[in-house]
Amino acid sequence: MSTKTAIVTGGNSGLGFATAKKLCDNGIKTFIIGRSKEKTEEACREIGVNAIPVLFDLNDIAGIPAMIENITQNNSIDILVNNAGINLKKEFLEVTDEDFLSIIHTNLLSVFAVSKAVVKNMKENNGGNIVNISSMASQYGIPKVIAYSASKGAIESMTRAMAVELAPFGIRVNCVAPGFIKTKMSAKALDSDPERKNKVLGRTPMGILGEPSDIADAVFYFASNESKFTTGTILPVDGGNSIGF
């Protein structure tokens, strides 16, 4: 793995940061794509020499091919982690068309565009690994996150379709579906809603929130040769939440 190169979108915080750190700690040169200059560069300094900042707003769909081409001019990409995403908590009837489209644009269209650009490089180099990040919101109905749920459900369907189509080129595509993990995003959602937090923990058999490192470990498994006969799978990493009663 120490000779490989990776891209992690949204790698400057939360699950993306933990994933980028896991890859870098294992000697993998990792390009961390983030839109905040200060946040992205600070994350790379904290992670170490294997982390390389790429300042880019993934909402600029048209600019993605050129951004990836700049990276691949001198690097072949072995691993792509599509982690970047945003959430929106609103009552169904309060969600505007613009709200919905904004979530789909960031969480789905950018994943497609980044993957398409990276796959061109992977095909030229006879293989690679793509790991998408979905959510428990795609596994069952959660109120007040209609757009987020739709985007993550689409990510899981796209994972399976990509896996089948790209397998002949030696490219594996898998997906990690995090449960409720201790991040700033989840803290904001749960701490402001004690009833929701109690419900989350009550239906999680392990009775705790996960750590960002739990997601990073799952991503690393998919990105490594340990999973060489695995593609098109969705792995819940959720303390049993998705099957809890």
From TrEMBL:
CDD domains recorded: SDR_c
Family membership: Belongs to the short-chain dehydrogenases/reductases (SDR) family.
Family annotation (SUPFAM superfamilies): NAD(P)-binding Rossmann-fold domains
Annotated InterPro entries: NAD(P)-bd_dom_sf (IPR036291), Sc_DH/Rdtase_CS (IPR020904), SDR_fam (IPR002347)
Protein name per its UniProtKB record: 3-alpha-hydroxycholanate dehydrogenase (NADP(+))
Gene Ontology terms for molecular function: oxidoreductase activity, acting on the CH-OH group of donors, NAD or NADP as acceptor
Keywords per UniProt: Oxidoreductase
PANTHER family the record matches: 3-OXOACYL-[ACYL-CARRIER-PROTEIN] REDUCTASE FABG, SHORT-CHAIN DEHYDROGENASES/REDUCTASES FAMILY MEMBER
This protein's encoding gene: baiA_2
Top EC class of this enzyme: oxidoreductase
Stored Pfam families: adh_short_C2
Organism expressing this protein natively: Flavobacterium bizetiae
E.C. number: 1.1.1.392
